[in-house]
Write a structure and sequence with these properties.
Two copies of one chain form a homodimer.
Chain A (H helix, E strand, L loop, with lengths): L1 H10 L1 H12 L11 H18 L2 E6 L6 E6 L8 E7 L19 E3 L2 E3 L7 H18 L5 E7 L9 H7 L1 H4 L3 E4 L11 E6 L1 E10 L5 E2 H4 L6 H10 L22 H9 L5 H5 L12 H7 L2 E10 L8 E2 L2 E10 L5 H15 L5 E6 L7 E2 L5 H14 L4 E5 L4 H10 L3 E3 L15 E3 H18 L2
Chain lengths: 455, 455
């Protein structure tokens, strides 16, 4: 039966891509308040599309922040399973804008890839699901299973309100299992089941010295330089071996078993040098880059700033310096505990003569691992393999999807991560893109999966 | 005879302050190319004013960068000494603009201080000289000595073209001695002769890791973080004792003699905590804050930036990180040598997996010391003391004035530093200001000094 839906997708490919372009053209950047109207426009687009497809109760939930789009389809019958689909319509900021080859919000196809912010993370993948549901409705007049759609607009800013909504709406949103497409494959055209995700937490450090920028000639030698002090603090948190030197950071970390190391080794991972442009990879002493990225915790400074950044020189001692830090966590690490020891370390190493303030990120998530042998996972692998014509691999990945932990926590249902992104998509970076080939094969995977699930 | 000039200054105080406001209202920021027109306007203001006063050959020299304003007065006769007056009409940038209580280019008087960018450094002090010459011309019809005026527009960006101009125009600019008012007094109302200045040099460090910002989940653990690597490099250059840990940095440094330490100790210095807002001063181990600021070399990070600085979080590994560094030098240190060992240290400590680039600042100056017993210095001290009603102190200061070294180098004439700034002027910072009281007493000092010089 899924063949008709597949034919519909190929026959209507052009118009579907046009509709995708319309969606990608909306600059729904959630972290920047100037885009509030665009966020609303993206939410409206989804609500209208879901109505057109034939979903019931398509509506927008006022979360207190950006709206969450919800819709459901219950006509597959009470015997049919119900899936909760989660995705997000908000995107990362586009800076540095001058590094984009084409306008991030004017989608452009080059070399078989569609270039636009959100093309891969996550508007593109969300759209694939809706297009597949449209294909089923237009050809069969129904869907193979009951579906509940939950698409939020705050994923890129920590899904601040999602947990509460998932809790408040538990009766309405509840389902037999959940499907999320907000992840990737280890290589283009390599079907991949994510059975492990990293947790996440972060802090911001602010160091304040003088109450205003000082002339370095008049006061150099009399006061601490906040930037230098922040350098001392940060340099004490990770060493040249890429080992995190914060007391207790690795406590309770579930070690990588030889079997798991072998699994990781066998994954045809991407070429990190090629994908990142570095001459040489660097990883935690004792682990390969692949092992560190997929299975070991990380500590990254995402941004740091203080003092003069303009043209030429400005001979000042700046008043403040700031660093934004996030960590990716593995099973065995508690986000709140990690934040606590990071904060303790900062205050322990903070020198006299400056004021050091630590702000804890609201976003926090434990790491996640799923049972690779669950039938719903097996069926996903089968659909993947059929669509891509290649065996599916099972991997752990370095990314964090807090909603995965929350759905598990609140609904306690199996979660299937059907990701179609590729390592070259440049998520969160200039020139984000998504391969049209993955667009086609990904939709075929979904068509087959929904049929399999209720087979 | 100087009494008439003094009377003129007090009788015309209001109109002179209005003219000063007109000068300060021109946003002559030299480091930012968007202010090119304003720089030209400030130069025109000076040329016109010098013409009105009665100087000859008032003209603008095309330096290849911002224009240099020159004028001369030769009618004091061949027996009268000739002074070369140097000042600058360009100013520092105003950022962070939101910290200004009033518009930096709309001068405002509050609590006896005139608030405006350049009010102290250096437009205000330049204007005092011109007003005094005006006073002499309007009352005596002549000046007590021959005067050559040299006012540049590139001091805040390293006086890139000044050295060449001073060399090219040597025959025209040459004089018996030079006077510069681009410095300050150790405390308001405390006449101060600067007998020592620090030298100056700087570098910019750029660290590049991946060729684009990376998703910290997909690549965290596979590549070096450029910000963290820059932290490691910088933290290795100065320690917790505020001692610079770059091999050879202190080589050849002329030690502070007990006599000099006593001199510094006896100077009623400012209250650093009050002036800077720090709870506790910090200085090189073994030296007081005053000793370190006035007589020991310094190393300051003026600015550092990399990665995300916006609202919220952005989970990236940034592509690049940058630090701007300047050092203040003391007698015995060679700027070029210091740049060389800083660069060597950076490359020596640079880890694999990132590209580290060091850019040497063009601006460079050796430290300067003058003989406190020179008659021209003694006369300056006498005029100061008369005008301010207080004994003049002799100090070394942490600031750097490259032109001092260059005039000494090219013209080999005595240089008198007549500074009227005060420690609370907030040079290079938001809310720069200058006391009206210093404006009056400073001009009186100049009136008396010109009379003394040719007495």
């Amino acid at each position: 039966m899924s063949e008709q839906a597949l034919r519909y997708l190929s026959e209507n490919r052009t118009s579907l891509l046009e509709k995708l372009n319309e969606f990608l053209s909306i600059p729904s950047v959630s972290t920047d308040s100037v885009h509030k109207k665009d966020i609303q426009e993206a939410a409206n687009f989804l609500k209208d599309y879901l109505n057109d497809i034939g979903f019931d109760h398509a509506e927008q939930h006022d979360t207190g922040g950006h709206p969450l789009v919800y819709a459901e389809y219950n006509q597959a019958g009470s015997d049919a399973p119900t899936v909760l689909f989660y995705g997000h319509y908000d995107v990362q900021p586009v800076d540095p804008i001058d590094q984009w080859k084409s306008d991030p919000f004017k989608p452009e196809v080059r070399d078989g890839r569609i270039y636009a912010r959100g093309s891969s993370d996550d508007k593109g993948q969300v759209f694939m699901h809706l297009a597949v549901f449209e294909a089923y409705m237009k050809t069969e007049g129904k869907l193979p299973l009951n579906v509940k759609i939950c698409i939020e607009g705050e994923e890129e800013i920590g899904s601040e309100h999602l947990y509460d909504v998932l809790q408040d709406k538990k009766d309405q949103f509840n389902a037999d299992f959940a499907v999320i497409s907000d992840s990737g494959m280890v290589a283009q055209n390599q079907p991949t089941i994510l059975y492990g995700l990293k947790g996440f937490t972060g802090i911001e450090i602010n160091v304040t010295g003088p109450d205003h920028d000082l002339h370095s000639g008049m006061y150099g030698g009399a006061v601490r330089n906040p930037i230098m002090k922040l350098n001392h603090i940060l340099a004490s948190m990770k060493n040249e071996d890429e080992v995190i030197t914060v007391d207790g950071f690795y406590d309770g970390v579930e070690p990588l078993s030889d079997k798991e190391r072998e699994l990781i080794e066998n994954v045809q991972g991407e070429n990190y040098e090629k994908a990142t442009g570095v001459k040489e990879t660097a990883s935690e002493k004792g682990y390969t880059a692949k092992e560190h990225t997929m299975g070991r915790p990380t500590f990254e400074i995402n941004g740091m700033y203080g003092g003069y950044q303009g043209e030429g020189t400005k001979t000042i001692i700046p008043s403040t310096a700031t660093a934004k830090i996030t960590c990716r966590l593995v099973p065995g690490q508690e986000p709140e505990q990690i934040q606590k020891i990071l904060e303790q370390h900062v205050h322990k190493t903070a020198p006299s003569g400056v004021t050091v303030d630590v702000k804890k990120e609201k976003l926090s998530a434990k790491a996640y691992k799923v049972e690779p042998n669950h039938p719903l996972i097996k069926k996903a692998a089968k659909s993947y393999t059929k669509a891509f014509g290649k065996d599916t691999v099972y991997v752990r990945m370095g990314g964090s999807i807090p909603v995965v932990e929350w759905i598990e926590d609140i609904y306690n249902i199996p979660i299937v991560l059907l990701g179609f992104g590729t390592p070259d998509d440049r998520l969160h970076s200039p020139n984000e893109s998504f391969p049209l080939d993955s667009f086609d094969k990904g939709m075929e995977t979904l068509v087959r999966y929904w049929a399999e699930v209720n087979a």
